[in-house]
Amino acid sequence: MKRLTVPLASAGAAAMLALTLTLGAVPITPARAADAATGNGWVATWQASPQPVWGTDFLFPTHLPAALHAQTVRQVARISLGGERLRIVLSNAYGKQPLFVGKATVARFREASAAGAVTDGSLRAVSFGGQEGVTIPPGASWVSDPVALPVPALSQVAVSLYLPQATPISTFHWDGRQTGWIVSGDQTQATSLQIADPDRQSTTARPLLTGIAVETGPAARAVAVIGDSITDGAAATLNKDSRWPDFLAARLAPHGVAVVNAGISGARLLSDGMGANALARLERDVLAQLGVRSVIVLLGINDIAWPGTAFAKHAEPPTLASLTAGYRQLIAQAHSRGIRVLGATLTPFEGALPGTPLADYYQPGKDALRAQVNDWIRHSGAFDAVIDFDAALRDPAKPARIASRFDSGDHLHPGDAGHRAMAEAVALDALLPGLESKAAGALPQAR
């Protein structure tokens, strides 16, 4: 690739340009951008991987209106690392027309608020190139200017976006596991959203907001997790930040390490589904994330189980060779950027999704392929390290099933206790050599 040289007034300006380009879409810096004036750097601290909005004929509802007009969306995100300043990332990745955001604010969220309330005195306006509004081209992302708002690690922030024009929603993250609100008018500056608003509605989907970065000390690093609904937290308790990447973030925060969750419910390694296949989104969701030094890969169960179900009635099942080739390609691309790759074994799923249109998700032949994949993950040596989530969650008496104490009840997705067990199964020194595995002590209880 030909190097583009642009004369800039200062090293600090060069770093800021690098940051904007890296967060926006095209990674032109190695892993993170530093501020030459302060010695500090920016690191990704939260993520919601973008997905294309599907039509009304799909199996699941979107939990969003088809379009927003003269409305404010307020979303809550629990960051992993904190900092003195932050930036937000908005996405029009799957839009077919320019998307105009009229205003945006960020604030510290008042926990346990039922009305989207934020902490008094914490509201800050967000600007984009010095302007309060921004037009995001089709297929693009946009990074805000830095916002001076000190936020501690593992705290919740509220991001409010006002959409003054009729705006079709084409890009979202379906399963946010967190309540957000849509209200009429410009309420970006409201410390508490108007409860009496007749158009007020709540949603667990995330439109437009896809990332948050914080300015930290120069040693900050990030771990990305690319996965499916198990990583996305499909059965984790709503509004409790109890997905396994959340628990992992609690272990890593004392070490100055962020966790960015690139899980998408329905995601697959080789094929598109409720989002792009892993190899298609690897650059955007992992390699371009600021500060990423390691990635955990927990993908493949939907590749194995979707064929023959209502999701992919006539699809051919993958072969072991095709799945391992996909893993090897993902590893090669990450290694080319100096990123360490940990493979996670696929968790048990016998009896999955009973009483649903996907009751045929599990079949003995599919489980046999899962066992072959897990054997390859454990023994091929392709990954830099292995996390054995299968061993952590399975019932010793019935190893094809999740142990009852870890099961959410659908026999596919772990409940909160299962997510905690998964986070505890990650050896920190394998994740990032030099970290102490016992570092943070006991994990905190889910809120």
Automatic annotation (TrEMBL):
Signal peptide (residue range): 1-33
Superkingdom classification of source: Bacteria
UniProt-listed Pfam families: Lipase_GDSL_2
Residue span, SGNH hydrolase-type esterase domain: 225-421
Alphabetic keyword roster: Hydrolase, Signal
CDD domains (alphabetical): XynE_like (cd01830)
Recorded GO MF terms: hydrolase activity
Protein name: SGNH/GDSL hydrolase family protein
Organism for this UniProt entry: Comamonas squillarum
